[in-house]
Specification:
Bound molecules: coenzyme A
CATH class: Alpha Beta
Number of helices: 3
Structural class: alpha+beta
Largest sheet: 7 strands, mixed
Oligomer: single chain
Order of helices and strands: EHEEEHEHEE
CATH topology: Aminopeptidase
Radius of gyration: 14 Å
Distance between the termini: 23 Å
Helix content: 10-25%
Length: about 140
């Protein structure tokens, strides 16, 4: 498996398959995808994109930080889960944040995935909350 930075549009098929099933591809463009400071990571196996993650220079109202970054759009192809792809993507996101001078990486994690983030050193803040149309989430964070 290898990791590269990819353009925002390259994330759309996996976002659609994993994170926005049944929704049109336009629902897979996230705010700030094209901002300076945003980067998108792709994990490749045999020239197939098997995992994605996106990182935004974005503050979180509940987590004061000098240079905060947000992790979004984490998705691993269903056939490739449990093989360390997600962990490698998060490690690369953390090193990208560190290289950019960041002091915080936060995310709104689906409660079904919060155990994944805990394994990778993230802490939960507060109670679970509902994101309309997507489901229950936890605010989570860790230093890079
Ligand atoms: C969550 C997701 C990104 C994890 O990717 P993955 O490649 O399967 O994860 P990894 O194989 O790298 O797992 C790393 C560790 O986390 C654990 N883990 C993975 N998914 C988990 C989950 N949902 N709950 C608890 N632990 C989990 C693994 O067992 C592994 O633990 P280990 O180090 O003890 O072996 C992937 O399952 C996915 O795309 N899920 C659907 C979309 C989603 O929920 N995205 C996150 C939105 S916030």
């Amino acid at each position: 498996m290898r990791l590269t930075r990819i353009p925002a549009r390259a994330t759309w098929p996996l976002r659609q398959l994993v994170l926005r099933p049944g929704l049109p591809v336009e629902a897979c463009a996230f705010p700030h995808d094209e901002d300076e400071g945003t980067f998108h990571l792709g994990a490749w196996a045999d020239d197939a994109l098997v995992g994605i993650a996106s990182v935004y220079a974005e503050a979180c109202a509940q987590l004061p930080a000098a240079r905060p970054f947000r992790l979004r759009g984490m998705a691993v192809h269903p056939d490739r889960r449990g093989q360390g792809v997600g962990a490698v993507l998060v490690a690369e996101a953390l090193s990208g944040v560190k290289a950019a001078g960041g002091d915080l990486l936060w995310c709104n994690a689906r409660t079904s995935a919060s155990g994944f983030y805990v394994r990778l050193g993230f802490a939960v803040v507060g109670e679970a909350f509902e994101l309309p149309g997507i489901g229950p989430h936890h605010l989570m964070h860790r230093p890079p």
